[in-house]
Amino acid sequence: MAQKQVVKVDLTRVVVLVSAFLALSAFETVAAGLDAAEANRRLGRGLNLGNALDAPEEGAWGIRLEASFFPTVKAAGFQSVRIPIRWSAHAERSVPFTISKAFRERVDWAVDEATRAGLVAVINMHHYDEIFLDPAAHRERFLGLWRQMAEQFRNRPETVYFELLNEPHNKLTDEIWNEIWVDALKVVRASNPKRIVIVGPGSWNNLTHLPRLRLPEDDHALIVTFHYYSPFEFTHQGATWVSQDPPPLGRTWTGTAEEKGEIARDFGTAAAWAKANLRPLYVGEFGSYEKADMDSRARWTAAVRAEAEKHGMSWAYWEFGAGFGAYDRAQKAWREPLLRALVPR
After folding, report:
1. I want to staple 60 with a disulfide (CB 3.0 to 4.6 A). Which of 55, 112, 121, 219 is the partner?
2. d(Cα 231, Cα 237) in Å, to the nearest integer?
3. Sequence-separated (6 or more) residues with CB below 8 Å from residue 154
4. Backbone angles phi, psi at 221, to 5 degrees
5. Which of 58, 113, 163, 285 is labelled catalytic?
6. CA-to-CA distance for 319 and 327, rounded, in angstroms?
7. Residue 222: enclosing H or E segment and its boundaries?
8. 127 phi and psi, to 5 degrees?
9. Rounded to an integer, what distance in angstroms lies between the CA atom of residue 176 and that of residue 166?
């Protein structure tokens, strides 16, 4: 009996030690964070949930996010959603630039729904138009907003990524943006030391400006993004919001060798930069407006998606259910040509 008792005690100690080791291993995995390349692979194929939380007020542009959107996106074969968010429209103008509680809770809800559906969620700062016109005047507010956002999501799973700013442009030049975004990264790292952060270059996240983006050598929890809408005369034909004289209707995209070659050259340039700088790339936006014919839209979308995937880039189509939408919200059905261009059978 005594011998059996000793064996029992030893087994108990083994169980305790193994449990402690597994718990420590799990903690170390979380503490270490995701490798950027693996994080980019998890982004995979994605959709932008645009025109909702990035509107001046949700619903102002005809869309309010619904819980059903997230499992619908997942079931169609996508791995991630990019959630554009206009934080600046819901925060005070003076220190400490407090973001409204109701809006923070609404974003919390969206992140919850994405996580529940098994999707990686990218939350960004979208349409902060004031900082593009006067970067110096809005620098501290930009940092103050990110301080609050980072604190709000500090305990979220590693499948929640931060994107610092959508499409810096105008007076927010590459040089000024390089100074501001590094400070924003420091703010984020104070509460989220291993969180995946996405950042892109100036001139509307133009791929030709990738070489102007200065990246810290000691932070590799970073993914670099660019946006792609070329040829603009095709993708934005009839888009009255882009200028007083929008690109005219009727431009087609038939997939000629020359047309495909232009896309291949652009993505080859981006891929060469990524290889030289050892950074993964995320095509955070690409899409064509509904005024173009559907056959052309599907061909162009498939070509861009194929080039991105050929070079190991993750991507997020612009967008889910508005003017560029792959999903028809009125019919509660996918626009099959666009869906198949994005997620081939």
Report:
1. 55
2. 10
3. 191, 192, 195
4. -95, 45
5. 285
6. 9
7. strand 222-228
8. 55, 40
9. 15
* Paired residues of 282 in beta bridges: 225, 314
58, 167, 307, 319: which one is catalytic?
Answer: 167
d(CA 167, CA 181): 12
Residue 167 to residue 86: CA distance in whole angstroms = 13
Rounded Cα distance between 262 and 259, Å, is 5
Question: Which residues, 6 or more positions from 211, have their beta carbon under 8 angstroms from its beta carbon?
Answer: 273
Q: CA torsion sign, 89 to 132 to 136 to 122?
A: positive
> pLDDT by residue for the chain (345 residues), tens digit each?
344 333 333 433 433 333 333 333 332 333 346 899 999 999 999 999 999 999 999 999 999 999 999 999 999 999 999 999 999 999 999 999 999 999 999 999 999 999 999 999 999 999 999 999 999 999 999 999 999 999 999 999 999 999 999 999 999 999 999 999 999 999 999 999 999 999 999 999 999 999 999 999 999 999 999 999 999 999 999 999 998 889 999 999 999 999 999 999 999 999 999 999 999 999 999 999 999 999 999 999 999 999 999 999 999 999 999 999 999 999 999 999 999 999 998
List the structure tokens of 34.
């995701």
Residue in the structure block whose two tokens are 């990264």: 185
Closest to 341 measured CA to CA, from 308, 311, 321, 312: 308
Instruction: Mark whether 285 is an active-site residue.
Output: yes
Global pTM?
Answer: 0.90
User: What contacts 23, CB < 8 A, 6 or more positions away?
Assistant: none
State the SS3 of 223-241: EEEEEECCCHHHHCCCCCC
Tokens at 104, concatenated:
């923070």
